[in-house]
């Protein structure tokens, strides 16, 4: 199902929001939170890898993978490789981002997997991995039959949209959770850092919305030499 708008102009808004979100989270982690590290006496520097990798690596790159099929006027096989490759990068960076949170908790003596955000995060990354493996096997290699691909495509899109939506919602939940912890530790509720975190969450939600609009908009036509073009 496609809505009656062209995908390309919608992607411009999505790209702009992706840049805004990436800049905001980097400013937060570097300027306000002190930067990044994998080994440090200040364990918060380890945690900072988590929001940066989850937003930029998992959500933004994952969103770009989702809209690449609709926004790029390339051959189907080229778009398939781009789609698959970007999702693979997002998955790997998401796993590293989750590892950063576990590393921070373990080295700080904080319990793991006690919050709704952490439960949903594990669920989302597992579902994302299953979705990627299934897509690779059915649509890329070894590849399913034409009937299986055709029957799987609507479900593949539906599951992908659902998982991405869950990731966006959980990211907003994560920003809220971290900001609440910081405010309970003395951070000014109306200070610049609090505003930045909230605006980063808003940019993330809007980015997710425009990615979803793109997914259900009318795609760009195939490359002129791609006579085998289809929706699969």
Automatic annotation (TrEMBL):
Q: Tell me the keywords, alphabetical order.
A: Electron transport, Heme, Iron, Membrane, Metal-binding, Transmembrane, Transmembrane helix, Transport
- Biological classification of the source: Eukaryota, Viridiplantae, Streptophyta, Embryophyta, Tracheophyta
Q: Which organism is it from?
A: Nepenthes gracilis
What start-end ranges are recorded for coiled-coil regions in this protein?
none
Tell me, in one coarse class, where this protein mainly resides: membrane
Please indicate which superkingdom the organism of origin belongs to.
Answer: Eukaryota
Q: Where in the cell is it found?
A: Membrane
Instruction: Give TM regions.
Output: 12-40, 52-69, 81-102, 122-141, 153-175, 195-218
Q: Which reaction does it catalyse?
A: Fe(3+)(out) + L-ascorbate(in) = monodehydro-L-ascorbate radical(in) + Fe(2+)(out) + H(+)
UniProt name for this protein? ascorbate ferrireductase (transmembrane)
Entry EC no(s): 7.2.1.3
Q: Which InterPro entries match?
A: CYB561/CYBRD1-like, Cyt_b561/ferric_Rdtase_TM
- Which metal ions or organic cofactors does this protein require, according to UniProt? heme b
């Amino acid at each position: 199902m496609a809505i009656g708008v062209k995908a390309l102009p919608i992607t411009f808004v999505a790209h702009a929001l992706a840049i805004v979100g990436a800049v905001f989270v980097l400013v937060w982690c570097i300027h306000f939170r002190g930067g990044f590290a994998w080994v440090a006496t200040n364990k918060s520097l380890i945690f900072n890898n988590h929001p940066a990798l989850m937003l930029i690596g998992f959500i933004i790159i994952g969103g770009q993978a989702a809209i690449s099929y609709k926004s790029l006027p390339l051959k189907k096989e080229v778009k398939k490789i781009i789609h698959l490759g970007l999702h693979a990068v997002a998955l790997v960076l998401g796993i590293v981002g989750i590892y950063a949170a576990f590393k921070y908790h373990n080295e700080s003596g904080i319990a793991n997997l006690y919050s709704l955000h952490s439960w949903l995060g594990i669920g989302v990354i597992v579902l994302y991995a299953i979705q990627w493996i299934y897509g690779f096997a059915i649509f890329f290699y070894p590849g399913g039959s034409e009937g299986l691909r055709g029957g799987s495509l609507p479900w593949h899109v539906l599951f992908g949209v659902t998982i991405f939506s869950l990731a966006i919602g959980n990211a907003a939940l994560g920003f809220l959770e971290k900001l609440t912890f910081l405010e309970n530790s003395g951070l000014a509720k109306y200070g610049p850092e609090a505003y930045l975190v909230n605006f980063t969450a808003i940019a993330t939600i809007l980015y997710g919305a425009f990615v979803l609009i793109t997914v259900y908009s009318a795609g760009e036509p195939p490359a002129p030499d791609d006579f085998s073009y289809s929706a699969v």
